[in-house]
Write a structure and sequence with these properties.
The protein is of the alpha/beta class. It folds into two domains: 203 residues, Rossmann fold (3-Layer(aba) Sandwich); 83 residues, UDP-galactose 4-epimerase, domain 1, CATH 3.90.25.10. It contains ten helices and 14 strands. It has a seven-stranded parallel sheet with strand order 3-2-1-4-5-6-11, sandwiched between helices. Strands 12-9-14 form a three-stranded mixed sheet. Helix 1 links the parallel strand 1 and strand 2. Helix 4 packs parallel to helix 5 and helix 6 runs parallel beside helix 8. The protein is globular, with a radius of gyration of 19 Å. The structure holds uridine-5'-diphosphate-4-deoxy-4-fluoro-alpha-D-galactose. The site of uridine-5'-diphosphate-4-deoxy-4-fluoro-alpha-D-galactose has 22 residues, from helix 6 and strand 8.
């Protein structure tokens, strides 16, 4: 069986963990990244690296002609909700055009399978406190979520017209780090809650801001479903196997099925790090839904996915990365 996998966005936070896991499991990995937000030092030395942009069809054709790829894992997109509210065109350009060019090149070069990083943000602001299943309506409330929904739809229609199969994995809040402490989350600027809480615990910022305390949730702060990055990586390997076994294209929600409020994350982080962590109330951040919690029954049943990490492991591994590499990849 062809074990050659291309990870688009393999220098990113999620991509670098994906690449490590694939290599550890005996896959041959080709990384494609334009390093616009990813880090060269995050790419595992055992992988083959092509620097370039997914919107560049000629570049993609060259890669596919050089490498006999069976599956593309597409993690190559901008993913910051507040940034997308300010600059929607940046998101539609990079994410949607990137998907179109990638699929064109896959079809032209007879690459059969794609596993796509989609997101809970495609569901918008679901009403009530139910966990979100794959049957829930997708009505994004930010351009990031909209761009990913468009990408899902493009993939679906292209797969109907061509010999191409896909799995869309809708992640909830990807978090934590590999226990080795060698790779982790490092965005500039950082906007994600857990790394910001870690910066505060480490003393790199005096306090963090809690964006909104009047949401329709038990303590008024947003509720999210935090899922460990290595559990996500496992799900991709299972999705690849699923496609290689000839099953039909499909979509799955990936979360821990447990919701934690912003305040609960801060409290858990105080516990895990033993640091006081000053948090101040601040106005709402545009584009934030009240609650996003996954129902991952389908992924567990169909893909046989078994997430292993809980919220303590997530914060613990994020803290381990912070203590080992306080400046991220900058002073690596
Ligand atoms: N938050 C704060 N203070 C901060 C940073 C974040 O209160 O300094 C809050 C946010 O308002 C939000 C929660 O913490 O309520 C989580 O925010 P993140 O920025 O960490 O993550 P998001 O939920 O906005 O988005 C993340 C990914 C998206 C993905 C989404 C899926 O960045 O790509 O999870 O649920 F789509």
């Amino acid at each position: 069986q062809n074990k050659n996998v291309l990870v688009a966005g393999g220098a990113g936070y999620i991509g670098s963990h994906m690449v490590k896991k694939l290599l550890d499991e005996g896959y041959h990995v080709v990384v494609l990244d334009n390093l616009s937000t990813g880090h060269k030092k995050a790419i595992d030395q055992r992988a083959k690296f092509y620097e370039g942009d997914t919107r560049d069809k000629a570049f993609l054709d060259r890669v596919f002609q050089n490498e006999d790829i069976n599956t593309v894992i597409h993690m190559d997109a901008f993913s910051i909700v507040p940034e997308s509210m300010k600059n929607p065109l940046k998101y539609f350009d990079n994410n949607v055009i990137g998907m179109i060019k990638l699929l064109e090149s896959m079809v032209d070069n007879h690459v059969p399978n794609i596993v796509f990083s989609s997101t809970a943000a495609t569901f918008g602001n679901p009403k009530g406190n139910r966990k979100i299943t794959e049957k829930d309506p997708q009505n994004p409330i930010n351009p990031y979520g909209e761009s990913k929904l468009i990408m899902e739809k493009i993939m679906k229609w292209v797969s109907k017209a061509n010999h191409l199969h896909y799995v869309a994995l809708r992640y909830f809040n990807a978090s934590g780090a590999d226990a080795s402490g060698k790779i982790g989350e490092d965005h500039h600027p950082e906007t994600h809650l857990i790394p910001i809480v870690m910066q505060t615990a480490y003393g790199q910022r005096k306090n963090l801001q809690i964006f909104g305390d009047d949401y329709d949730t038990p303590d008024g702060t947003n509720v999210r479903d935090y899922i460990h990055i290595n559990d996500l990586a496992d799900a991709h390997i299972l999705a690849m196997k699923y496609l290689n076994e000839g099953h039909k294209s499909d979509s799955f929600n990936l979360g821990s099925s447990k919701g934690f409020s912003v305040k609960q994350i801060v409290d858990t982080s105080r516990d895990v790090t033993g640091k006081p962590i000053q948090a101040n109330d601040a106005p709402r951040r545009p584009g934030d839904p009240d609650t996003l919690v996954a129902d991952s029954t389908k992924a567990k049943k169909v893909l046989h996915w078994k997430p292993k990490y809980g919220i303590h492991d997530i914060v613990k591994t994020a803290w381990n990365w912070k203590e080992k590499h306080p400046e991220g990849y900058q002073k690596y």
